């Protein structure tokens, strides 16, 4: 998978709203995501019933994932889910507070098994507080945060901006920021942690500017009297002669002057830009002007000019706008037009969105993540994982792929001996001093003279006689690598070289 998050493993417990959206962003950027679905969910009928229940046939927010049906209320199902979580970098759950704990997948259990796990929680009201156990949705969180009231217009009730503000802006996006922050911190500490994301907190955070404006006396609590709530003539939405709408956002005087010139209105309104008492009359004047031409005529006159103008497009129209086409802001996958992954990266661009995969077999997913599908390992029927020589493979912690990639990068500053690669049949063992050496007749070479991410899984043994997979080797090497150096490979190269050559050679079995 392409993208800056390639190699990151995410387990998502099935949910709705902000959690799936945040995980979609991670998947878009290259993360490998497995969603654990409830097996007993039967999609209802058509139309609004499907929308209300959350069962859609074209659920673009679920793109980029595999899914498995696991019943967490059954012992075998819980064991299977925990085996997946053992191999994950991130777990995302959006249950009400206490539900994950009752199901046996709470943070204490999961972090106890996988200390590097970033356990990300997303709720509306948060884990604590008098509303914590109360059901709610986007509109409720926006209302209680104080951000809904300013969206009133005249005597009409407040109009929320769909569910973009609470679910996605203050929820899913904040969830992604929390996850990436915890992953960055993990490079230094080597430990995971719980990320508590609440939409009530996220929407409140988005309103920080307005609290500052109120404190300074620059914001009125009367809706429609401020610059940013359509109280001014130069930052507003206007109707055209054919019932369509256009937007003007000329906050700076030079852009307002350019607009007034295009409209043939002179400079009187420009001189009144800072006089809020004149705004109502200015709005009326501009509304009259914009009603004099059709939507397409205004586009022809104002698009591409220095007037801070944009037409109000529908969901159907937006993908075909020339600017969006030039930037490939929207893409088509399997006949469905949808927003492309964002943001964009120069060296590690994300690939095109991938449609949600059909539900996978749980054992297949576990095996693909380096786990076991045996009853003892995963709570699912199947054969135990074995190496090429018939020995049972030791199940170790998940491969820290991001760190392994950094190790490969740092190989450029380390000496590269010519006899580093083990030959056929050769294997490594942990010496009593903890130093890994070849067992078969061949020149002795320390492990880090080779690329740990490429070591054969079945050629490594650990005293006394237990087979040690490359997953375990890389993880153990990484624990002693000094994560501050791995997180910043261009800083302190000599110190990094010293640490890598002296510490990454050792396998500390204790």
Task: Pick out its properties.
single chain, 510 residues, alpha/beta, six-stranded parallel β-sheet, three-stranded antiparallel β-sheet, 21 helices, elongated, disordered C terminus
* Major sheet details: 6 strands, parallel
For the termini, the CA-CA separation is: 35 Å
**SS-derived structural category:** alpha/beta
The low-confidence runs, each spanning 5 or more residues with pLDDT under 50, are 374-510
- How many strands appear in the DSSP assignment? 15
**Radius of gyration using CA atoms only:** 29 Å
Strand order of the largest sheet: 3-2-1-4-5-6
How are the elements arranged and paired?
Blueprint: E1 9-13, H1 18-28, E2 32-37, H2 48-53, E3 65-69, H3 75-86, E4 90-93, H4 99-103, H5 107-113, E5 118-123, H6 138-144, H7 164-189, E6 193-198, H8 199-206, H9 208-215, H10 227-231, E7 235-239, E8 245-249, H11 253-263, H12 268-271, H13 279-290, H14 295-302, E9 309-311, H15 322-327, E10 330-333, E11 336-339, H16 362-368, H17 375-378, H18 401-410, E12 428-430, E13 436-438, E14 461-462, E15 466-467, H19 470-479, H20 483-487, H21 493-503
Helix pairs in contact: 1-7, 6-7, 6-8, 7-8
Question: Would you write up a description of this structure?
Answer:
Mean pLDDT is 78; it is low at 374-510. α1 (18-28) links the parallel β1 (9-13) and β2 (32-37). 36% of the residues lie in helices and 12% in strands. The chain has helices at residues 18-28, 48-53, 75-86, 99-103, 107-113, 138-144, 164-189, 199-206, 208-215, 227-231, 253-263, 268-271, 279-290, 295-302, 322-327, 362-368, 375-378, 401-410, 470-479, 483-487, 493-503, and strands at residues 9-13, 32-37, 65-69, 90-93, 118-123, 193-198, 235-239, 245-249, 309-311, 330-333, 336-339, 428-430, 436-438, 461-462, 466-467. α7 (164-189) crosses α8. The relative contact order is 0.10. The protein has 510 residues and is α/β, with parallel strands linked by helices.
């Amino acid at each position: 998978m392409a993208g800056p998050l390639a190699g990151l493993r995410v387990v998502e417990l099935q949910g709705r709203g902000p959690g799936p959206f945040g995980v979609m962003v991670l998947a878009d950027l290259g993360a490998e995501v497995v969603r654990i679905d409830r097996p007993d969910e039967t999609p209802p009928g058509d139309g609004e019933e499907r929308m209300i229940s959350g069962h859609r046939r074209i659920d673009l927010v679920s793109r980029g994932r595999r899914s498995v049906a696991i019943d967490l209320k059954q012992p075998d199902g819980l064991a299977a889910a925990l085996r997946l979580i053992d191999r994950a970098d991130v777990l995302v759950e959006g249950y009400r507070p206490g539900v994950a704990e009752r199901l046996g997948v709470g943070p204490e259990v999961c972090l106890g098994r996988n200390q590097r796990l970033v356990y990300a929680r997303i709720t509306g009201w948060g884990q604590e507080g008098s509303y914590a156990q109360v059901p709610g949705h986007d509109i409720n969180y926006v209302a209680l945060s104080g951000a809904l009231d300013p969206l009133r217009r005249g005597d009409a009730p407040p109009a929320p901006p769909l569910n973009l503000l609470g679910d996605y802006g203050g929820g899913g996006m904040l969830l992604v920021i929390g996850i990436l922050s915890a992953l960055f911190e993990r490079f230094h500490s080597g430990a995971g942690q719980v990320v508590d994301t609440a939409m009530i907190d996220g929407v409140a955070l988005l309103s920080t500017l307005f609290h500052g404006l109120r404190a300074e006396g620059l914001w009125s609590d009367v809706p429609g009297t401020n610059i940013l709530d359509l109280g001014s003539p130069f930052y507003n939405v206007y109707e055209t002669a054919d019932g369509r709408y256009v937007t003007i956002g000329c906050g700076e005087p030079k852009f307002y002057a350019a607009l007034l010139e295009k409209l043939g209105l002179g400079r009187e309104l420009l001189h009144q830009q800072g006089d809020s008492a004149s705004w109502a009359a200015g709005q009326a004047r501009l509304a009259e002007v914009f009603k004099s031409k059709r939507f397409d005529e205004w586009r022809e006159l104002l698009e591409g000019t220095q007037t801070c103008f944009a037409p109000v497009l529908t969901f159907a129209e937006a993908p075909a706008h020339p600017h969006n086409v030039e930037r490939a802001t929207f893409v088509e996958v399997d006949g469905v037009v949808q927003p492309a992954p964002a943001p964009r990266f120069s060296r590690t661009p994300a690939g095109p969105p991938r449609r949600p995969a059909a539900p996978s077999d749980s054992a297949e997913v576990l095996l693909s993540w380096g786990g076991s599908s045996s009853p003892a390992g995963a709570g699912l029927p199947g054969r135990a994982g074995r190496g090429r020589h018939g020995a049972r493979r030791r199940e170790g912690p998940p491969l820290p792929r991001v760190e392994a990639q950094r190790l490969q990068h740092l190989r450029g500053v380390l000496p590269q001996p010519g006899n580093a690669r083990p030959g056929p049949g050769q294997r490594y063992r942990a010496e009593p001093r903890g130093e890994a050496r070849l067992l078969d007749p061949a020149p002795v070479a320390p492990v880090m003279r080779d690329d740990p991410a490429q070591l054969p899984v079945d050629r490594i043994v650990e005293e006394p006689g237990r087979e040690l997979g490359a997953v375990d080797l890389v993880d153990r090497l990484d624990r002693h690598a000094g994560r501050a150096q791995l997180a910043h490979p261009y800083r302190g190269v000599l110190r990094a070289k010293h640490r890598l050559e002296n510490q990454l050679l050792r396998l500390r079995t204790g």
